[in-house]
Write a structure and sequence with these properties.
Elements: E1 3-5, H1 11-17, H2 22-28, E2 30-34, H3 36-44, E3 51-55, H4 62-73, E4 77-81, H5 83-90, E5 98-103, E6 119-124, H6 129-142, E7 147-150, H7 159-165, E8 174-177, H8 179-187, E9 192-196, E10 213-217, H9 226-230, E11 234-236, H10 249-266
Parallel strand pairs: 1-4, 3-4, 6-7, 6-10, 7-8, 9-10, 9-11
Antiparallel strand pairs: 2-5, 3-5
Helix pairs in contact: 1-5, 3-4, 6-7, 6-10
């Protein structure tokens, strides 16, 4: 049976609100996800929140009822609360009516199975949570095996990144590693490393991709470091016919992923 929390002074409110900060997420090993759609995506992917907060206006919704029932059946906690407290928890003036507290997922390279898919996405020093979320959505759309974040990337469990992923965080495995860890892991098994680069004459559509293909996208502002690019099996370029010299990192990743997917369908 859900309990009610209506007081801002409740210690759980502060504990959950603190999850908007990366340090507290690491300390607690938990993160926030907002919205009935995203939490339903998580439930359908087999991931339930440890705690679900919901507003009175969502209490009768069939999807909200199903979510609450499954959370409680799994030993989690369901809490009915006010719009003001939901706003405090999410940091938004116009909050979603459902919010979940999830345990963070393991993000070690060793947890990945490279045979899971012929397409993998790799992002190096990605800084924007919107780009990270969009790349996760692309990964879900093309059936990628996962997203590997290299070096100092934006936190995939930040509220902004989770929101931007629209539920794809729960369907696309995420790993985090340093370049010095990633490269030996990649070379220990099959895998073609394809770097997106401006410093090449190879058109992305003329190249041939071998499975599994690991698509490497560099930092939004600086692109791939020269020594990282040198380690790629193949470097390709998306032609730019206007005045801009490159596409947004998430857009470029999507263009590349669909080209690889198209070649897989033809093969």
């Amino acid at each position: 049976m859900p309990r009610a929390i209506t007081a801002f002074s409740n210690p759980l409110v502060k504990q959950v609100r603190d999850l908007r900060d990366k340090r507290h997420r690491r300390e607690q090993g938990r993160f926030l996800a907002e919205g009935l759609r995203i939490l339903t995506e998580a439930r359908e992917a087999g991931r339930l929140p440890e705690i679900v907060f919901f507003g009175r206006e969502s209490a009768g919704h069939p999807l909200a009822e199903a979510l609450v029932a499954e959370v409680e059946a799994a030993g989690g906690e369901a809490i009915e609360t006010t719009a003001d407290i939901l706003a405090k928890l999410s940091g938004k003036d116009n909050p979603q009516t459902v919010l979940g507290v999830f345990a963070e997922f393991p993000t070690a390279l060793e947890a990945l199975d490279r045979s899971r898919s012929p397409i993998w996405l790799v992002a190096e020093r990605l800084r924007d949570p919107g780009n990270l979320g969009t790349i996760l959505r692309t990964g879900d759309a093309v059936g990628a095996g996962g997203l590997i974040l290299i070096d100092e990337c934006v936190d995939p469990f930040s509220v902004e990144a989770v929101r931007a992923s629209m539920g794809a965080l729960f369907t696309v495995p995420v790993a985090q590693a340093r370049w010095a860890e990633f490269l030996p892991w990649l070379r220990a098994g099959p895998g073609q490393l394809v770097g997106l680069s401006l410093d090449t004459a190879t058109d992305y559509r003329s190249a041939r991709y071998e499975a599994p293909t690991f698509l490497l996208t560099g930092n939004e502002a600086q692109g791939l470091p020269a020594d990282y690019a040198a380690e790629c099996d193949l470097r390709v370029k998306i032609p730019m016919l206007g005045k801009a010299d490159s596409l947004n990192a998430a857009v470029a990743t999507a263009v590349m992923a669909y080209e690889v997917l198209a070649q897989r369908r033809i093969a």
